[in-house]
Amino acid sequence: MLNIIAVVFVFSFLVIVHELGHFLAAKWMGVRVDKFSIGFPPTVYSKKIGETEFSISAIPLGGFVKMAGFIDESLDENVTGADYEFNSKPVWRRIVIISAGVVMNLVTAIAIMAFLTYSEGEQRIPTTSVAAVPEQGIASQIGFKERDKILAINGTPVYSWNEIQDVFLQNLNTQIFFDVLRDGKQITLEYKKEWFGEKGGELLNIVPLFSAKVGDVTASMPAGKLGLKKGDTIISIAGQPVSDWMEMTEAIRAHPDEEIEITYQRDGQTLHGNIKPHAFEEKTEDGKIVRIGKIGVGYYYEHLKVGLGRSILAGFVRTWDLMALNVRSIYWVVSGTKSAKEIIGGPIMIAKMAGDAAHAGWTYLWYLIAALSAMLAFFNILPIPALDGGHLFFLLIEGIMGRPLPIKVKLKIQQIGMAILLSLIILVVYVDLSRLFF
Question: Which of 25, 179, 186, 302 is the most exposed, having the fewest neighbouring CB atoms within 10 Å of its CB?
């Protein structure tokens, strides 16, 4: 049920934001708005307020604003030349109206990113050491091993896992060199450019090796009952010294429902206590069911407080990075470097992401909404007929020629644009379904 609510909320929010931009700009520029619809027909509920009919429709995968005298995907030729019609307004006013949806999506993405940065701070993973390397994948081909410490990528020093991810993404589809500290010696590992074209080649499939420092504590679990707090560093479990998260969890997992001694540090003091890990059942890779112990602690993340000015700047930077990644992704698909199945995601994938984010918490859901809002802005501005970018293209031609294209020509181009758009939708849904089932 939560998944369904999250999906409807995400799609509805994005549609309302985008179409509200067009609606407000149209009213500001003196254009009559006949209909404001959330979702596509059939209409479920509608109410007329003033000159506009506001409606909620059954298919929650989009929406539209119907303006008087606007030749759009509805293929309406009813243009009378009245002053309140879209086509009666100067080119610059029409550009403002058409651009408003994209601008609204961008502003929304920037605002959400900025607010989350200001309220949550910048989450930083304070390690560059590797916890695990899957046998299959790019990391294994590169030559990474457990407990390698990454010092630099292509000569750029890295001091957190966040920086590793950022620098790796910036250098995708190029030759990448990793300076790594292994067993006290510095070595260099190479990511070859041709590996990027392989399935999963854009993923550095390694996970960070966290310290034995306590993050979030579940109050109802043994750690919470003992009084462990965020920032405590665990030194030993059942008399066994531990130096990192892997050693700590292995020691705890080995003692389900057994009372054991725990030693930890807090503010420079060494503290001792007894703790009884709760027993849980877990399936191993070979299908066996084993009992393991858990005490209810999470990874330790640093949350750096960020001022308002820097938060706003972070909102712009993160939104820009998302837009730039979209451009690169399209180039990779068009050039044949990556397959559409690896890069493209549609409504089914977005629905799954929305459900996952909702289960993870509101913060993650709003990050997803911000990212999707930026993506919606990017794809809507592409010069494809029936999208905002296609309408802007018509207006630019009109501005250059000094007269609009004939209505019949516009309608024909719109029909072609709708065919292209429907083909893209079919492709995206096919990719989604093939990813889901195969």
Answer: 186
